[in-house]
Amino acid sequence: MDKTLTSRHGPWIAGGLIGLIAVALAHYGNPGNMGFCVACFTRDIAGALGFHRAGVVQYIRPEIPGFILGSFISALIFREYSPRGGSSPAVRFGLGVFAMLGALVFLGCPWRAYLRVSGGDWNALYGVGGLIVGIFIGILFLWRGFSLGASTNNPKASGLVMPLIAAGLLAMLFIAPKFGENAPVFFSTSGPGSQHAPVLMALAAGLIVGWLAQRSRFCTVGAIRDFLMMGDSYLLKGIIAFMITAFAANYALGTFKPGFEGQPVAHTNELWNFLGMVLSGLAFTLAGGCPGRQLIMAGEGDSDAGVFVLGMLTGAAVAHNFSAASSGAGIGAYGIHVTIAGLIFCVLVGVLCRDRGE
Amino acid sequence: MSDVITVNASGLSCPQPVMLTKKALSGLNSGRVEVLVDTATSRNNVSRFAENKGWKVEVNELEGGGYKLVLLK
Questions:
Q1: pLDDT class for B24, splitting at 50, 70, 90?
Q2: Closest residue in A to B13 (Cα–Cα)
Q3: More exposed terminus of chain B, fewer Cβ within 10 Å: N or C?
Q4: Does B13 contact A at CB distance below 8 Å?
Q5: pLDDT tens for residues A329-345?
Q6: Of A226, A312, A273, which Cα lies nearest the Cα of A107?
Q7: Residue A24 CB: number of other CB atoms within 10 A?
Q8: For residue B12, what is the DSSP state?
Q9: Which of B41, B42, B51, B61 to mutate to test the interface with A (most CBs of A within 10 A)?
């Protein structure tokens, strides 16, 4: 099995399985077209911890710690646990913040953008279009010599921080402690945060996907980047399989509902669906991979990816505390402002961060 | 025998190891190119790229961690 996952066929086999698991999670309780959404789930975790107080999106989604721990265990078993870091961590933190802000303007990370299309939500076509444009802008910077610099090997123990945070989140999910009146941990009683698959099923799904993605290098941004840059369809096949199986499962379960109006956890503003994902796609490309991939690398001991993930957690809090997140009703009052600020930040990073070895 | 070209791609994020390898191989019809990478992902990506371009790849695991990939044609 491992030989297959690490072979040329790995990404499409992993992608196909992940597509099926995603639709199963939505079928068993996750919000519509949200079998997996790294942005939405991280946002829900930020809410559960009280980092923002949007009452409808607060829940400790076990899929996220599952990704990190699944990857961590897989990396240990296959001797790929490799603690490293030190490649412009503060810049990566900023990229994580703005990748999240862009994703919450669109309402989904790249994983969910593809899942939304597979469920017939045509608003997400603008998001996928924006994602491709954002990745292409990132490629232009890469061609000009963009680099955040090299990471170096870190002490073995340094790679344990993100897996320990993941374990702590799971402990808080299962124990559900209350740290005072009107204090976390919060669990939504209505809205998307209240909709979830059974806890153990979601955790198992997260662990399995963490393992599959760690072995196959499944990456929803690298897929498009490598195809556009080098005509390499190795990772792209993973996304195509992911969308095909998700579409087939949605169709079989009657959850394929084509159209623009009335889509679950989505709005119909074409321009900001597009630009939100331009920002996200650019930020992910500059950081070297999609949000799922960042979680997987964090599990392998990559502290830079860990810092990016913590940036996403912060970005989620910013999005809701500063009225920048969209909702089904439309974009937030400051969604446009943060998207423009994020695009300026990313362009500056792309222009100014060059390889000093040249 | 011509000079050995060494590419140090250790610690770099995707897709920079492949980009540096591509740059080193461009215009070369034969020779020996050594690429240093630090992760299994970069090892696989660089190997796949070089093999697709017709280069033979030898993978050497380094003692302190990481890999030296020897590309031959």
A1: very high
A2: A288
A3: N
A4: yes
A5: 999 999 999 999 999 99
A6: A273
A7: 16
A8: P
A9: B41
